[in-house]
Design goal:
heterodimer, A: 107 residues, mainly alpha, 5 helices, 0% strand, extended, B: 245 residues, 2 domains, two-stranded parallel sheet, 73% helix
């Protein structure tokens, strides 16, 4: 593939990545949003974060089965408790990494 | 969700302070992508161009695999669209704190909307006192790290040994903390639990990446109606008002 052909593919990939990120921002920031939409959008962050995180922790990517013994999930329990108690983003990242690392050494 | 205006210097400081966990998490993943790209015949220049033009982690992994497999350009572009469509939902939610901001800023801002920056910025906006400039800095320190990590991976291979210091868990740890910070009350906990359960089942039974958008929309909608209903009950029995939020 020539660099030019490759660039054309990238431009297509870039456009379909950028436009869905841009259009809601351009339009929804201009309109007076109805109350119900604002209330619904308020719940989107927690819903998206949980929808990203839960399968990443619990589902084995190859066999697509739920596995409660995955290191990612087991380490998540103390990490979650730490985050809940301390409410620190950076602290949770460091503590989560440390537990994951130790878990890998022990198990 | 009141926001404030920072000087660019102040925004840089606050943005880096908020965004460093993203950068830490991007290093091993970006380098792994660079290594993979190099193995599938993409030189560092092509890797860098992709990270600049298509700033999107998982879509880039899929894109590299499809390029190597000789997929048609159209199928690569359509797949990228589907994989990244979840950002449509994120930008919609970001439109609430960014209401009234000028179009030029938004055009630049939109470039950096990712799962990670969305989580960090929404949490900060919700806490109050976050600035649009600091939010933009989060986007661009994350993007810069991503470009450097992917190109470095393609040039020298990964510098991070497998499992070193648990760095592979940096993003998971960050998402756990962000999720906890989103739990502002019972309805948020209920919505999060529904989203998690639905997403796991959706991921197992339905092929592809639709589980993120699908589970988020289902859970937010159920949560929305549950909150409306409990409010309705509260209007009828105002004596119970304390329990109605």
């Amino acid at each position: 593939m020539t660099l030019f052909e490759y660039l054309l593919i990238l431009l297509g990939m870039g456009a379909v990545t950028y436009l869905p990120r841009l259009l809601p921002l351009l339009f929804l920031t201009r309109w007076e949003l109805p109350r119900w939409l604002v209330e619904w959008l308020e719940l989107i962050p927690v819903a998206i974060l949980a929808a990203l995180l839960a399968p990443a922790l619990l589902v084995d990517g190859k066999s697509l089965s739920v596995d409660f013994t995955r290191a990612d999930f087991i380490v998540a329990i103390p990490t979650f408790l730490f985050a809940y108690r301390v409410r620190s983003l950076g602290g949770t990242v460091v503590v989560g990494m440390a537990i994951y690392w130790l878990y890998g050494k022990v198990v | 969700m009141a926001s404030q205006v920072d000087s660019w210097g102040e925004a840089l400081k606050r943005g880096v302070a908020a965004g460093w966990p993203i950068c830490l998490g991007y290093l091993p993943i970006g380098m792994a992508l660079g290594v993979l790209a190099e193995k599938s015949g993409l030189d560092p220049l092509r890797m860098g161009l992709m990270s600049v033009l298509v700033f999107a982690g998982s879509a880039q992994f899929i894109g590299v695999a499809m390029l190597e497999g000789g997929a048609s350009p159209l199928s690569i572009i359509v797949t990228t669209f589907v994989v990244n469509f979840r950002h449509f939902l994120m930008s919609s939610a970001l439109a609430v704190p960014l209401a009234g901001v000028d179009k030029r800023f938004l055009s630049l801002f939109a470039y950096g909307v990712t799962d990670e920056s969305f989580g960090v910025n929404m949490t900060r906006y919700r806490e109050g006192g976050w600035s649009h400039r600091a939010a933009l800095v989060v986007h661009h320190v994350a993007n810069t790290t991503w470009i450097i990590a992917t190109v470095a991976g393609a040039v020298v291979g990964t510098l991070i040994p497998k499992g070193a210091f648990g760095i592979d868990y940096a993003l998971a740890g960050m998402f756990i903390a962000l999720l906890v910070m989103q739990l502002h009350g019972r309805i948020y906990i209920v919505t999060g639990v529904i989203a998690g359960v639905v997403a796991v089942m959706w991921r197992v039974f339905i092929p592809g990446d639709s589980y993120i958008v699908g589970a988020a929309v289902v859970a937010a909608t159920i949560g929305f109606y549950l909150r409306r209903r409990s409010r309705g009950v509260c209007h009828k029995a105002e004596a119970l008002e304390d329990g109605c939020r």
